[in-house]
Design a protein that fits this description.
Layout (H helix, E strand, L loop, with lengths): L5 E4 L1 H14 L4 E5 L1 H5 L3 H4 L8 E4 L2 H9 L6 E3 L8 H8 L2 E4 L2 H9 L6 E7 L10 H12 L4 E8 L11 H11 L6 E4 L1 H7 L3 H4 L2 E4 L24 E13 L4 E2 L5 E2 L4 E6 L16 E4 L2 E6 L7 E4 L11 E7 L5 E2 L1 H7 L4 H6 L7 E3 L1
Helix pairs in contact: 4-5, 7-8
């Protein structure tokens, strides 16, 4: 039989989370962000859950082609724009909208020969300091674009650096409002954290919002707020089974480096999952895990192909028992991916994207 590890993708959860984002930002249209192959879930696997979106946002032209092949006829936005001049030809053929964040992209548009003007989103660097024109240069960039026959409608966008934290978004909203004042066009500034935390404010939701991590059931501001607190459902479950059970005595150690020492008699289970499957190696003793839907903890180091778990809360568990590394157990119990990520010193985004190719995937 195959090794008993499985990632299950839940399109219905994606649909639920999309509608949750829509409720948080009433009257705004929603971009469903599927970059990084839908945050590791697989674009094709989650597509049914995204059909009610107003647009699809991504980075890669190949991903844009896949979305069109799936039958999507609505807007597709390239969040980082084009990477070389010939990309503009594919934008014309596929009907893609694209961000413009630097002067060179404007130069490429100016030299592009096309009969079909293109829809662009002019990006502002309002404080994130990755992509975009500074507020001081923003209006001149707009003027250049507005003068080009290759450009149709110009919309405006920026990205928040602290929508999930105490600094907040006010300083960036104000910079965006000052620079775009009186300019005609649609606006899009809210990411997942801003949707959930500030989507009730008209000056934040504006015309479009970008739903990213929220679609996949992770709380963008964990641990301040949990996925359950935001009414989000996990879009991915990583599950396996116990393949061995060991009885420890006081003083026995577990795993590489003997990082865990039993203080007394202890039953542990060995799980067919390790860092080669995408489970984070940095998870040490105490990382939450579900065995037969009952919460327990890992013990010792994560190995390439195995982890070990404390069976004290589930004394009846034996070989073949269900293990939920994150997501939804068979009995309905939930283990948020954010809790596992926190134990690894990272965020749920990374765990989703790190799912290894060797893990079989099922769409439920």
């Amino acid at each position: 039989m195959p090794r008993p590890i499985l990632a299950t993708i839940h399109p219905a959860a994606v649909q639920h989370n999309l509608e949750r984002a829509r409720r948080a930002a009433p009257d705004a249209r929603v971009w469903a962000v599927v970059k990084a192959n839908a945050y590791g879930h697989g674009i094709e696997r989650v597509f049914e859950g995204l059909r009610s979106a107003d647009g699809i946002a991504l980075l890669d032209l190949a991903e844009a082609e896949r979305v069109r092949q799936l039958g999507w006829r609505g807007p597709i936005l390239l969040l980082e724009g084009v990477f070389e001049p010939r990309d503009l030809e594919l934008c014309s053929r596929l009907g893609l909208w694209h961000a413009v964040h630097c002067e060179q992209q404007i130069d490429w548009l100016a030299a592009h020969k096309t009969q079909v003007p293109q829809r662009v989103f002019l990006k502002m660097n309002s404080g994130m300091n990755r992509l975009g024109f500074t507020p001081e240069r923003y209006r001149s960039a707009w003027a250049r674009l507005n003068a080009l026959p290759q450009v149709d409608e110009i919309s405006f966008m920026t990205h928040f650096s602290d929508a999930d934290g105490p600094r907040g978004i006010v300083h960036q909203v104000q910079a965006f409002e000052r620079a775009t004042q009186d300019l005609p066009g649609e606006r899009c500034i809210a990411n997942s954290a801003a949707i959930l935390r500030h989507g009730g404010q008209a000056q934040v939701r504006l015309d479009w919002v970008r739903a990213g991590i929220v679609l996949y059931g992770s709380a963008p501001d964990h641990p301040e707020r949990t996925a359950a607190a935001w009414d989000l459902q996990p879009a991915m479950t990583l599950s396996s089974r116990l393949i061995a059970v060991q009885q420890l005595q006081a003083g026995d150690t577990v795993g590489y480096g003997s990082r865990f020492t039993a203080e007394g008699p202890l039953t542990i289970g060995v799980v067919a999952c390790g860092y080669a499957d995408g489970y984070p190696r940095h998870c040490d003793t105490g990382t939450p895990v579900l065995v037969d839907g009952v919460r327990t903890r890992t013990v010792g180091r994560v190995s390439m192909d195995m982890i070990t778990v404390d069976l004290t809360p589930v004394p009846g568990a034996g070989i073949g028992a269900e293990v939920t590394l994150w997501g939804r157990a068979g009995n309905g119990a939930l283990l948020p991916i954010d809790e596992v990520a926190q134990a690894a010193g990272t965020v749920g985004y990374e765990l989703m994207c790190a799912l290894a190719p060797r893990v079989p995937v099922l769409v439920a």
